[in-house]
Amino acid sequence: MMRRLGATGVGITPVGLGCMQFSGSGLVERFYRALDQSTVTSVVGAALDGGITWFDTAEMYGRGRSERALTTALREREVVAGSVTIATKWAPAGRTAASIGRTLDARVASLQGYPIDLHQIHMPYGSLSPVSRQLVEMARLARAGRVGAVGVSNFSARQMEKANALLGSEGVPLASNQVQISLLHRTVERNGVLDTARRLGITLIAYSPLRSGVLTGVFHADPARVRSLPWVRRTMTGLGARGLARTAPLIDELGAIGRAYGVSAAQVALSWLIRFYGETVVVIPGASKPQQAKESAAAMQLDLTDRELARLDDVSRRCGG
Q1: Residue 46 near residue 38 (C-beta atoms within 8 A)
Q2: Domain contains 236
Q3: Tens-place pLDDT, residues 18-74
């Protein structure tokens, strides 16, 4: 089960592995606890064993620590460079477009010999240069063969359309736009991003596809677990009593379908995403344990019926998705 990354020749599985959790200490610890290298290697190994072929990381994730932890794990698993797909991102905050090229050697060094198959602008704001200049620089690197493909992240429909046109004039397709999508966050259906991506043949990479763990059902089953989470994560994902009550019908439905197939609620939620939206959407759930990566990979084998897809669609909308 492979999908093409936008209009490029790159093939990826509909489920990849998000590597934000590999950032180590620092800002990301406000969301997820730091993992040691042995755990990272086990998580990456479980993803590979499950059939996942690509990994999404970023410069911002620990200033290269996520990139290095990921590729250290790949090296320990003796994964040959070029046999998997790696996506990373340039951080625009306080920088000019010229820094994309200047910092590329640091990305290459952190990736330890693994190529940059997809290089993304992490967000459409914060840079000292306009997005148009950033895209021209990205296109230059792609034409020079220093990066395989060009993507963006958190771009609106209008920004995505303009980026696609500008890159096209430079002879480089816009491969992807990484945005938040889940059964509890379906804004792409209302803001034009999904329709624009389909029309232009751009892949949408869904981050937070499990809404930072809400859709696993573990917090509904044991609300006391919420108190153990970093406060930023609790606040941003609505993991309070009111939020848990509002989303309970969806969690119940995911659980019921999961029990019928002998799988987890999380696997049902991921399967819904990669099937309901067709070829346009792929997902990058994170994992802090090997079992989580294993379950995410197995979601690719779960084929929900049209009736189940429609039922989850309905319950999701009523829960505010």
Answers
A1: no
A2: no
A3: 999 999 765 555 566 789 999 999 999 999 999 999 999 999 999 999 999 999 999
What CATH number has the domain bearing residue 103? 3.20.20.100
Q: Is residue 114 flagged as an active site residue?
A: no
Number of C-beta neighbours around residue 131 at 10 A:
20
Secondary structure class of 234 (helix, strand, coil): helix
147 is a domain residue: yes
What is the model's pTM?
0.95
The amino acid sitting at 12 is I
CA dist 239 and 235 (Å) reads 7
What's the sign of the alpha-carbon dihedral 186, 192, 193, 195? positive
Angle of CA points 35, 153, 50, to nearest 5°: 45
Alpha carbons 294 and 72: distance in angstroms, whole number: 19
Over residues 65-92, the pLDDT tens digits come to: 999 999 999 999 999 999 999 999 999 9
Longest C-alpha distance within the chain, in Å? 54
List the one residue out of 153, 215, 155 whose CA is nearest residue 182: 215
CB atoms within 10 A of CB 72: 16
Helix (H, G, I), strand (E, B) or coil at 147: coil
DSSP-based three-state secondary structure for 124? coil
Phi, psi of 284 (to 5 degrees): -130, 70
Overall number of domains in the chain: 1
Q: What is the pLDDT of residue 301?
A: 97
Question: Domain of 206?
Answer: 3-212+266-305
- Residues contacting 64, CB < 8 A, separation 6+: 106, 107, 109, 110
Name the token pair of 128.
């000292």
Residue 82 sits at φ, ψ, to 5 deg, of 95, -10
Structure tokens at 198: 């389909």
Query: Which listed residue (61, 114, 207, 277) is catalytic?
Result: 61
13 phi and psi angles, rounded to 5 deg: -75, 150
80: buried, middle or exposed (CB in 10 Å: 19+, 13-18, 0-12)?
Answer: exposed
